[in-house]
HTH tetR-type domain-containing protein
Amino acid sequence: MKTNKRWGNGARVDDLDTGKKILLKSAVDCFITKGIKSTTIEDIAKVANVTRRTVYRYFNGKSDIITALIEIERQRMFYKVKDIAVLHDNNFPLMLEECIWFAATYRPPEGGKIDLVSGVNAAEASPHIDTEESDEHWRELLKAPLDAYNARNKRNVKLDDLIKIVGRLVISYRQSPSTKEQFKASMLALML
């Protein structure tokens, strides 16, 4: 239930996390409605029913808000990617292909909402996607399976080299969607 009382003075919010959650939800609503580029801090403050000053108390600016939102989605996505990796842990090329496809086609589970990192929001969101945080998630996911693959096949594929291309492939396929069949054909060509 929406209240008309402002909570920005700190007295009406239980804790820091609650305040951040309210602002992030308001930011998502604005980004979906207006797009990231057109949304201002004033817009977010208005939807959250606070002042701009309150928004700046919780975040350093719009870029900080975008980073926080993308990190939340990144955590949710990698939680699911790990389940996919387990299904194919004895076939590293297939595991890699399935994980890249899932990451490239991942959409937040909330029905009816547009994707914050594709379409009109792609240009503003892109700098926040392929980051060190993302690389660390891929590193954690791929290290053991790649080591096993290298040992079994007497290969020397370097994890850091692989991570560089994985992140770029995910972004590329998010921004230029294709069918899974087209994606698989491209991955097969890449493996030759």
The chain has two domains: 1-59, 70-191.
